[in-house]
Design brief:
- The protein is mainly alpha-helical.
- The chain has one domain.
- 60% of the residues lie in helices and 0% in strands.
- The protein has two helices and no strands.
- Helix 1 runs antiparallel to helix 2.
- The longest helix is centred in the middle third of the chain and has 17 residues.
Amino acid sequence: MPEPSRARAVLSTEDLTLLREAVLHYLEVIKDKPESVKFAQLYHRLGSAGGK
């Protein structure tokens, strides 16, 4: 039985950087709304995933 192929990353480092930049912009738009907390956490997770 052949070995399974190696898993590939779904997002590149550049993708993560772009997503982080977009979330940061959106955070500025919603800074006074309750959901800003969740987006701030996402922003930090994207930084961790992208090695920043």
